[in-house]
Write a structure and sequence with these properties.
With 243 residues, the chain is an alpha/beta fold. The chain is built from 12 helices and 4 strands. The model has no long low-confidence stretch (mean pLDDT 95).
Length: 243
Amino acid sequence: MPLLATRYHLIAPDYPGFGHSDAPDPTRYAYTFDHLAKTTDSLLQQLGLKHYALYLHDYGGPVGFRIMVAHPERVDALIVSNANAYEEGLGKKWTAISEYWKDPKAHPEVFESFVSLKGAELRHTLGTSHPERYNPDTWTDEFAHLSQPGQHDIQAALLYDYRTNVASYPAWQAWLRKHKPPTLVVWGKNDPSFIGAGGEAYKRDVPDAEVHLLDAGHFPWDEQVDAIAERVQAFLDKHLARR
């Protein structure tokens, strides 16, 4: 963000239950992607933002697509980093997760792995060409957050609700075909969760999309921050300079 903040007004809110945002009890706040999107959309409206470029990553993909569908007139550009919207982008791990969706109680090991310390570590290091460059605080801090009271209920609700995102892929693809926003894809091609085919697939619905598959894992900016910042800045300068 510091590499782009000198040129653009950046907003990076933590969703409810994440980061430094409040984490209401699930009995008071429904942890679904529909609700996260409505909460984020409400924030954008309170801030008075009428136009914006959206940067999507992982869970931010389903949230962002819901906002785009609700307000297509506000989306000036789209930047995608390992935010999947195509079934061919789902890696092998999603086979087990799809079984979990059918019967969570029959597959507790799926969720237990998701919130484990090892699971947090692998989210960052699987697919990276340079695991030795990672600070272990990256995943120990994540695990500490996941270990806070109430977090297991929050994360279980969202993991289960993720099935609604896969079901929404055709609608999101149709939106892309209809609106064809200027699109930049900077995708960690070694991500075992959202594989490179998911990044390439955006060109099917947005033929003019600029797609870069990078030698990186699920968090590509952790390994290719300068290259990504350079591409994002050039992309935004090209498509937003007139606004």
